[in-house]
Amino acid sequence: MNNLGFAGKIARAFIDSKLTPLIVAASLLLGLYSIVATPREEEPQIVVPMVDIYFPMPGSSPKEVEERLINTFEKKIWEIKGVEYLYSVSRPGMGMITVRFLVGEDMENSLVKLYNKVMSNRNLLPPGAAEPLVVSKSIDDVPILSLTLWSDRYDHHALRRVARELCDDLQKVDNVANSEIRGGVSRELKVSLDAARLSSYALTPVAVMGALERGNVAQRAGDISSGNRDYKLEAGSFISTPDDARRLVVSVKDGRPVYLSDVATVTDGVQEPKDYVFFGLGPAAAEKGLKGGAADYPAVTISIAKRKGANATWVAEDLLKRVEFQKGKIIPSEMQVTVTRNYGETAKDKNDELLFHMFLAAISVTILIAVFMGWRAGAVAAIAIPVTLALTMFIFNRIGYTLNRITLFALIFSIGILVDDAIVVVENIHRYFTTTRLKPLEAAVRAVDEIGNPTMLATLAVIASILPMGFVGGLMGPYMRPIPVGASMAMVFSLLIALTVTPYFAYRFMKGESHYGSEAPPEESWMTRFYRRIMGRLLHDKKVRYGFLATVVLLLFFSVSLIYFKAVTVKMLPFDNKSELQLIVDAPEGTTLEENARMVAELGEALRKVPEVTDFQSYVGTNSPFNFNGLVRHYYLRKGPSVAEIQVNLVGKDERSGQSHDIARRIRPALKAITDRYHARIKVAEIPPGPPVISTLVAEVYGPNQQSRVEIAEKIKGIFASTPGVVDVDWYQEDDQPSLRFEVDREKAALSGVDAAQVVQTLKLAVGGADVGIMHVPKEKEPVQINVRLPLASRSDIASLSSIYLAGSKGNVPLSELVRVVKGVEEKSLYRKNLKSVVYVTGDVAGVIEAPVYAILKMQKDIDNIPLPGGYRIEQRAATQPWSEERPGIKWDGEWHITYEVFRDLGAAFAAVMVLIYVLVVAWFRDFTTPFVIMAPIPLTLIGILPGHALMGAFFTATSMIGFIALAGIIVRNSIILIDFAELRRREGMALDEAIIDAGAIRFRPMLLTAAAVVVGSFVILFDPIFQGLALAMMCGEIASTTLSRITIPILYFMVESWKEKHKKKEEPDKEVEVQV
């Protein structure tokens, strides 16, 4: 076999090689290894270095904290390369800067750079400021497992003790990282001071605290030698029992010791609760095997994170085995342990489901080929598909990707396109076997040689259409990147397999179809004959031809108009269908813990009426175990008597008819009615399908001063609340909270020998209490703090507080003589973003059109009408902060910002795709006009994509856009194969019209098969809530473009080539005249 091209030579080398089956076996083994060895997770691991820096400055106002601390260090941190965002908040006595680096920046390097920058500028700390604290958080800190201990027999203290012991035991499991306990109360030695007794003994609270600290000391004093022996010398003794504390001498009066029990009540009890955790059962509790009544049971939750890179499924399974082992040992039989989060199990379920879908897609495509081309061709495809997938999965493993829903979707997405090379090669081998009289071996090699070069070009075109999507930036980049990376690698491997493995097995499986020696060519089908007649009319009748093209253009305009008329709405990603919801509750500042708990109990009663709820955990005064959404929104910092969260668990998605988003919409009105009675705010937080944001709708309000920012933000908040479909409206501005300030009369204090620091210390001790050490109890897992403070009744009364005595130079002085009480309002927090002061207004969407862009468009007009001095309008920006703060302005953020970034980057990727494909086709066909013919069908995909979304009632999402861009390469692939064959026929001497019709007739079969493979491969993800848009785009776009391009491409090619021929004929007489002259 001579005159073979590059593809033919490769096929000839492998078609009889003994290495070919070994390559297949090795590839499959690598794929199996990758499935077992690659860690499994539900979501991709996004590296977003995010660090919180705390700046304590006790006693300072928010304005002073902002001016003296935050502004100074923000400027220094902004100098660090790789910092993308700076968020800061200044509160009374405390400031915090959150530093977010660019996605993909190395976590360790970012932390080191930031730490060095802060520590090297400690000289900028103002007097009164304490050392800054740098704390990093990453996705690896998100707990994968939550265990809630609850009981109707054990109280919060008993649950906490068991939880502590169990948590310590679980920490021994391999690959366990951080673990935390939420809820319960710890043991505490309470020292409740009696103000009257202190006065009678002329003692102050500070003196008692000092005596306790000095009396609870023991230390190694050294070594002594006596009688040829060495002794370890120890001095002092610890407080190890309540009686030790009671007998402690705190002073001496009239020559007699004053014991602690003389001036205080010492109680071995539990801490005053700062938070509560309760466990409740829903109507679907039986589905989870839970039994109990309609009560809020005391509870404690253990949350456990895994080490970076560990397999979430294996770690969760090992932890649960350990829990089962400890039942009846550490865990009493009357105490229940409920798994309230298991991301290891959800990762396994999702992975198993997607692996099954991948297997189903591969089998479906194989059956499709077998039906159209026979079982032998199907058998060849059955080898090519798993070999390609196995190699792609191995590359995923080597790159460092985990097995998660995105990487597996990338493989499923690839199935429909990776089989194209095999289909084209097998179909051409089949055609050569049935239409030529060559020997089978030569026919197979010649078939590969003929189709190989255009197949390579077509494969490069598909890769060129997919790979640019890997350069999408922001948080969405890591979510999308496995799709272009995986699909591109799959296409490379599919081409290699098509040129090496496919000919090997096609020759052996299909040579029985060879017509070697036969004289009669097979008869064409009626469909082919019909196509030839139709195309003949279209090519030779201008009216029919232009009428068809006009119809196609009208269909295109109609399809695009569906977006304008909102029959198809645009959204970043659709709502996911999870088995959990989170309720975020904010009571008015100043609400007591008990009042907040009453409101949360009412919310629990409402949840007991929701049929899909299995159980819920109420966290009052503290945060629940955070997820990735809570990590970005900083829910883990939520503490205090006015905050609460409820974690709601639902039955599995296979056991309910509605999606989690439908349930969230249904329960929101009833829950809001309860919180409205308490003047509280509630947000129903769903787990986002993609990267989380601070809120779905965010208006960042900027302006020249805080007063103007708050005034405008309040008006915008009102616009949010009055806009249909906008819910969960909130803003970053606290309610007025009354405050009491004890102002020291400096003159009287100086005359009495008392300074302001003593007043502050005494009041802090009396009201807030002070932990002055621990009671040394060997068997306690948690330290037993010794807490000194006034009893609740005394510290809640101004008169009692005022009667406390302070030690002066001339004797003890009552506090009432040195201070006056001034009533006021607590100063509110101040926020900044990227060095600019801001007030945030937030909301969510839950209406007929649940996409933030439409809500923003509605609100923009109302915001324009907000009156401003001087007749100015509020500047509204979609992508960047206002350049100047001199005039009011807002920036729209939240989901809109990610939507803008993603569609901007995908648009740029699409432009790059067009350029790359054009360059490739120009290089191949050596013509500047042919590429336009080849690329013309790309817009035709919209004729299928947009009506398909409208019929399914689906959003046009980022995954839809990915499908549209990917289809550009697939459609161009078909165009290349068709036009390349037409030019081959023309080189053989066939007329233009006959060559075009012949190409359309002969090449339609592989075009139809590749289109059907895309449709079948995409169908398995059609009902996935996240990737439905991708499936619809691939299926509907492929059907429409394949149907129309079979006619459109030949027509356009005919028109362009006819024009070229006419132009060429006109030039030829001119050249003859020139020659004669």
Automatic annotation (TrEMBL):
GO terms assigned for molecular function: xenobiotic transmembrane transporter activity
Report TM segments. Answer: 19-36, 354-373, 379-396, 408-426, 456-476, 483-506, 546-565, 838-857, 906-925, 932-956, 962-981, 1002-1023, 1029-1056
Q: Does the keyword Ribonucleoprotein apply?
A: no
Q: Which GO terms describe its cellular component?
A: plasma membrane
**What keywords appear on the UniProt entry?**
Membrane, Transmembrane, Transmembrane helix
Q: Which domain of life is it from?
A: Bacteria
This one is known as: Acriflavin resistance protein
